[in-house]
Amino acid sequence: MKKFLKRTIGIALSMTLVASLAACxxxxxxxNADAGSQEPAAVDFSKESVTAIVPYDAGGGTDTxxxxxxxxxxxxxxxxxxxxxxxxxxxxxxxxGANAAADGKxxxxxxxxxxxxxxxxxNAGLTxxxxxxxxxxxxxxxxxTVKADDTRFNTLEDVLxxxxxxxxxxxxxxxxxxxxxxxxxxxxxxDTQFTHVGxxxxxxxxxDLLGGHIDGxxxxxxxxxxxxxxxxxxxxxxxxxxxxxxxxxxxxxKESGYDVVLGTWRGLAVPAATPQEVVDELYRIFSEAAQxxxxxxxxxxxxxxxEIMDGPSYEARMAKDLETYTALIEDLGLxxx
Amino acid sequence: MLIQVLQSALEPMVLLYMALGxxxxxxxxxxxGLTATMGVALLLPLTFGMDAESGILMLLGIYVGAIYGxxxxxxxxxxxxxxxxxxxxxxxxxxxxxxxxxRALGISTISSYIxxxxxxxxxxxxxxxxxxLALKFSSAEFFLLAFFGLCIIANISGKDMEKGLICGxxxxxxxxxxxxxxxxxxxxxHNVNLLSGVPYIPVMIGLFAMSQGFESIETIYDKDEVNCKxxxxxxxKEDWKVILRTAPITGLIGTxxxxxxxxxxxxxxxxxxxxxxxxxxxxxxxxxxxxxxxAASEGGNNGVTGGAMIPMLTLGxxxxxxxxxxxxxxxxxxxxxxxxxFQNNKVLVYTIFFGMFxxxxxxxxxxxxxxRLFTKVLSVPKTVLTPIIFVLCVIGSFAMRNNLFxxxxxxxxxxxxxxxxxxxxxTSPAIxxxxxxxxxxxxxxxxxxxxxxxxxxxxxxxxxxFFLILIFITLFGKHIKGFFLSxxxxxx
Amino acid sequence: MKKGNIVFSLxxxxxxxxxxxxxxxxxxxxxxxxxxxxxxxxxxxIAGCLVVVSMVLLIKSIRMPKEVAEKVSERMNGSKRVxxxxxxxxxxxxxxxxxxxxxxxxxxxxxxxxxxxxxKIWESMLISVVTTLFIYCVFRFLLNVPVNFGLFYF
Lengths: 337, 492, 154
What we know:
The structure holds three protein chains of three kinds. Chain A is an alpha/beta fold. The radius of gyration of chain A is 23 Å and the shape is globular. In chain A, helix 2 runs antiparallel to helix 10. Helices cover about 45% and strands about 20% of the residues of chain A. Chain B has one domain. Chain B is built from 19 helices and two strands. In chain B, strands 1-2 form a two-stranded antiparallel ribbon. By secondary structure, chain C is mainly α. Chain C is flat, with a radius of gyration of 24 Å. The relative contact order of chain C is 0.09. Classes of the chains: A alpha/beta, B mainly alpha, C mainly alpha. At the B-C interface, helix 8, helix 9, helix 16, helix 17 and helix 18 of B face helix 1, helix 3, helix 4, helix 5 and helix 6 of C.
């Protein structure tokens, strides 16, 4: 018996070690949880625990945006937990979110992959109509980027001309991923072709470009911003409606006569059966959070563009994108049988 | 600037967080099924409320601690606590069988410290230069690197080479399930949970921890053969010599492996182990409980810790999975890793360097003073510990992606792993295959895509040739050595 | 060992051949027109290697001298125990999704610990409840892992 006790104490001791450590960390983040607003509303979330599903790994771009937003909105809930459910290019997590209880207590961060996966045929039954969108939070357009000391390319026109005769190696964040489709969309509009080189994530493509192993990349501006600032890379064009605030001198593809507006977006959604008043309340909470100073500062620091869009327009954007990507993927022959 | 760095690194709160990080890391690492990556990923949210220095250094503490902690269960239970200690388990467990667990733990503690120090030194001194070299790596080089890693399988599987190779090949094949990353063609299974590939952490937990659990069930009523009593920890004079000869070299190798994106501490320890064996005067002792082997593998895996930070800080490219999470941690603090970090946040960068040195020192002190406490977990009787390990395996494989499917993957791997070990098939090659297989395939095809189908791309650069020579030596080194030996004999 | 080796290598040979046949049906490089090997090449080559190495193992194992029979009874008992454990764990994992983490884990731990250590019932009970609650709390509240599956959400 004595031996048994001794052993139990042994386990307990070593385990409390882990416990005490973790406790130190949580204190700091809980400190200002009670400071939230208590406006009376038809639906009251202040006593509810809410879960936000991120369909990608912890530490990634989507995850950090969701966590920053959750942090900005935590005053409106009893607590809000961010849960990472990665796998199948985001389908696993989004499916889990779409099939959750329709009470507004499980919010999913939906990304552009909600449309591209379906277009690709790797969606495993996932489709955007399973969700009722709350709002779009952030968007990023593709930036056609090359090495700064590459004298061959100074304008978008140079790239397109070159690609017609020599084959232009365009890096992207993965086969069938959004930046692959964006580059393909540009090529289609300009009636040319790129050699698309896929990597596991944008970072790999950018490193390969920095090392001079490929000709250019078509990832978001946020992902190349540091290297543009340091003078290693230059952006030739952005595939957005308007010029980006951070790089006002860089023209859009539209200005050069190619009507391509392609890029990624992230937003929040709940299962389709969720009552409208719940969605409205969530929209109120999160649109406030998205305009809070902390969140804006975070987004600016991480070179993310805040683009708030209400539920209906967000849904319209999804429908339009699905159409665009389905056509593009058909052209590329990427559709999975 | 030096004063600023010292000030921010030696601030009591920062030191406290680091110490807690290292302690938690050692516990996490020591528990089979909880890896360094998982520990850092799971504790990442705790850093959101901290300032940048405390947050990052706590995570680094966890990382350093966990990589070291894995060796404790590797030595005492023959179950690597983290995959990084898979090579340690081979020899470390032999010590425990002989009742010399303390000796092995001492060697592993000191070697881990030396490996860590070497890597911090590299991080500190040469990170900008090495980052330039890392930029020269492209698909062809990555393919050769992965291929080189796969060749090691033949060398680590000892006398059962065929079985080791088969196991490695099975690992590579399992890794091809799911969407092909080059053509998006779905291979072998349309199950949604497998589309992005078989999750390898549950496989690893199953192969190592679960199957070990089954094995101890088999002999559950036998008296414990292993003497878990840890007596003297500080190594004696002979061992010191071995450690000082081996650990700095494998630490350096580990650092280099760490710099290479994608290659983590698990590969670092295997390459270290392998190199030490080929340099050793008594290579036949490897696998039978050689102090050199433990020192090599532990120096190698802790060497990776600093190395993995080099491309992360200078380029924003993660050196391994843990570094990838660190990028997230930095981003949340509003800092973007990359060249700009060195210009704008010099103090922070050097605080990280210095902090890593302190974290390693904490690891050494805790390793030497509290090892008995850590091993207490493992002195629980088998009859109680084994079921608990089962629970940890289940929840550990669930926690990575919060997916019950992964628990099933773990269970199947555990059963397969147990059956394989029954016919003496070494299972660690499967992990190498699982990790390196996709890397090799993808980069092989990407290299060909970039070269327009020409194979010359694999012979174009000095780095390619460097790896080609390494591969040649790995595959045919024994024969060459034999040839020269016989040549010398003839001469003499 | 000898028998095990032969069975193992035969399984691997069959598996390798099966994979080769499956991958033959995959689209060829020409379909993509980029000069890059198609999706079937890599697994095909690896499966080919698997067949070759397994054949070597098969031949080596056949040539192995017959080994002396082991003490069967001891071994058999152990193997039976492992088999029961495996079935128990499969049932446990299946139950997780229905009964939730806490209930199924307490039951599983109690059953195994009582079976193995044959100690006092209250002692096994105490250990299993305390361990389960501890693990649950650490993962659920400290590490924010949603261990809230099953009917009752815990």
